[in-house]
Amino acid sequence: MAAPTIWVLGDQLDADGPAFAGYRAGEARVLMIESRHAIERLPFNRERRVLVIGAMRRFADRLRADGWTVDLRQAPTLAAGVLAHCDEHHPDRLVVAHPSSRAGLALTRRLGSALPVPVEVRDPVGFITRPGEMDDMLRGRQPRMATFYREMRLRLGLLVDDDGAPTGGEWSFDQQNRRPPPRSRDLGAPPPWLPAADDPLDAALRQEFAGLAETGAGGERVMAATADEAEVALERFVQTRLDGFGPFQDAMMDDDWAMSHAFLSGPMNLELLSPRRVAERVAGALDDGAPIQSVEGFVRQVIGWREYVWGWYWRRDWQGANALEADAPVPAALMGGSTRMRCVQVAAEGVEARGYTHHIQRLMILGTLMLQRGTRPADALRWFRASHVDAAAWVMAPNVLGMALFADGGQMMSKPYAASGAYVKRMSNHCRSCPYDPAKATGPTACPFTTLYWAFLDRHRPVLARNPRMALSLRNLDRRDDLPAIRTEAQAVGERLDMGEA
Ligand code: SF4
């Protein structure tokens, strides 16, 4: 007798998700597809393949152990896999949760026309809001993160007192999340949960994918690949690392790639761990004495930033966004070349070793360097997607194009994340072991960040002058009497970045 097929995409690994609702093991078959096209088309970071394909295979095993019949198949494309499955098993309908990408959604629509059976697209899995819901919540107001985040807190009743006031008296403790790193060699946080280094499936996958175009030498998975692993990672974070997360969440250190971060983005993006569960667990830590700036700072990342980025992914088509008409290539140091810029070296080493840099390295080192250099947004996006283990399409488009590169002209963020070396010096210890001087914009030891910062303000002054939040920066620019020298230096810095000689 024909039965439904639940089609589980690679980032929908939740047996309690919307696609499974109403079915028990034995009542529907589960289809999972390893698309060769998806695996091979991009030079993914090696550890992203290990994480995603490994998580899919482990999830299939778990479903089978729970009594489900699972068709986990390899196919040239997702569409080919679905068609082959339908030819073989003749389901009476195909049920799938709303894909997390525009390409995935378009595919479900094409299949809906091509297949002889109905394709039922249910709610997305892995998010608190649905596509389009951000605008409904904001009732016509221009989306800004602070407004949206407050609405989310009220809606979920998270960190909200009985009288509707924010717990701790503030909606955001952002000002207390910006402590510079200590003078010590590392932060001294307890180590994060990490998977076993000799996991046999990880080793087999590295072998299986050897030879594919990829970035990163890899060999070190840092994110959970099963729901059980994700729970352990969450508990380890809450019980041992959350307290230190708040004050130092924006700090960077030469010898501490993990700092106090949680490493939960990967499992959340695969729906091994629901964002609501993470936010509620962290909020609950207040009762155990966790500091409010840590708890609120982390909850803000999950129900604020993560959902805001998800909302923006669906709010506009990001293809072709290039409001600042940037046309430079990705810096050679990030394409296998070298650099003497210590801050960039450390981030590039993180990508190479484990496909991971933490959020402030991504935004304020890698993103700001590309913003100020004028890297082509499409190239920057391709690089970020190829470099990080948690680089889902919906995350990277708004984060790279809207937040880091201002390629949407300021729709998503109210001002560009431009910064000189002074910011890096304040928030990291990188500058201490760098041959460049963050205070200098010109001369043989000029910091490339500082040179490019002033040149960026100078180059885009007409656009930036329309933004009141840039007024102070532009007044400081006006005080400089060395702009001709900065323009010349910026040209030389750009050439050195292109050549891998910066
Ligand atoms: Fe980076 Fe400039 Fe500091 Fe060197 S001096 S680490 S290039 S910000």
Bound molecules: iron/sulfur cluster
Mean pLDDT: 94
Q: Name the strands of the widest sheet in spatial order.
A: 3-2-1-4-5
Distance between the termini: 66 Å
Proportion of strand residues = 5-15%
Summed up:
With 502 residues, this protein is mainly alpha-helical.
Keywords, separated by commas or semicolons:
502 residues; mainly alpha; five-stranded parallel beta sheet
Task: Please explain how this structure is put together.
This protein is mainly α. It is 47% helix and 6% strand. The protein is built from 20 helices and five strands. It has helices at 36-40, 46-65, 78-89, 102-114, 133-138, 145-156, 200-208, 227-248, 265-269, 275-284, 292-315, 342-354, 359-373, 377-387, 393-404, 421-427, 448-459, 461-464, 471-479, 483-499; strands spanning 5-7, 29-35, 69-75, 94-98, 119-124. Strands 3-2-1-4-5 form a five-stranded parallel β-sheet, with helices on both faces. Helix 4 (102-114) links the parallel strand 4 and strand 5. The longest helix has 24 residues, at 292-315. The mean pLDDT is 94. Iron/sulfur cluster is lined by residues 341-343, 421, 424-425, 430-431, 434, 436, 438, 447-449.
